Amino acid sequence: MPQSKSILALCRHAPYGNTLAREGLEAVLACAAMDQTPEVLLINDGVFQLLQQNPEQIGEKNLHRNLQALPMFGVEILYVCRKSVEQRGLCPDDLCVPGAEITLLDDTGTFIGKFDQVLSF
Amino acid sequence: MQFTLVVYGAPHSSEGAATALRFARALLQSGHAIYRVFFYSDGVHNGSALAAPPQDEQDLLSQWQALERNHKLDLTICIAAAQRRGVLSPSEASRLEKTSGNLADGFELAGLGQLAEASAVSDRVVTFGG
């Protein structure tokens, strides 16, 4: 199926409090596998997904495995809302996914507005 | 205009489930088309035939089923999200060695590819709940 629409996946949830963090990334990978590769913007608590994680202590699978799969599926840039990072007192240098380029955005509204479809997770 | 609705809200848990239903009805009354309603995350519970709400509370399931019958709506439930939460067709229940299936009539189980395809062909994608 040719990619007829530009798609943005908004990842808004912290990695383990809500299943939408994991299921959102699964949907991103599924879209990419269907040649409908979305761009990905991490915003609000979604920026926590990019921190180092040790969820085995709470019996959860590490979400970083899903994140690391993104570049292999053609999602090579992860856009991140700078304001969300600053509001949470995070250091941009601590946001990391091997193989992916992290790009901080100042004007997320204009960025989101460029897409035909927004899938919100 | 052609719409796809994505529902994350479970009935009787998130208002998003009921809002999605009312939005679907309003779209159809306004002459728009609904390409697909895709139930994902906790939204898969909308397709459980086993929910038994009290009589003085709204029954979303029968209303979705009525819309499906009257407008041939495509009500698709993500199979992976549904398996995690225990919404199974009889054949899935048998395959997974569970005692019974509970997928309500009018709903279909399918993969996430159905969300990707719907996003590609719809004019608008609107998300409810989550």
Notes on the protein architecture:
- The complex is a heterodimer of chains A (121) and B (130).
- Chain A is α/β, with parallel strands linked by helices and 121 residues long.
- Chain A has one domain: Hypothetical Protein Ychn, Chain: A (3-Layer(aba) Sandwich), CATH 3.40.1260.
- Chain A has helices at 20-33, 64-69, 82-87, 108-113; strands at 7-11, 39-42, 77-81, 101-105, 117-120.
- Chain A has a five-stranded parallel sheet with strand order 4-3-2-1-5.
- Chain A is globular.
- The two termini of chain A are 23 Å apart.
- The model of chain A has no long low-confidence stretch (mean pLDDT 96).
- With 130 residues, chain B is of the alpha/beta class.
- Chain B has one domain (2-128): Hypothetical Protein Ychn, Chain: A, CATH 3.40.1260.
- Helix content of chain B is 38%, strand content 20%.
- Chain B has five helices and five strands.
- Chain B has helices spanning 15-29, 60-71, 79-85, 90-95, 113-121, and strands at residues 2-7, 33-39, 75-78, 107-110, 124-128.
- Chain B has a five-stranded parallel sheet, with helices on both faces.
- The longest helix of chain B has 15 residues, at 15-29.
- Classes of the chains: A alpha/beta (121), B alpha/beta (130).
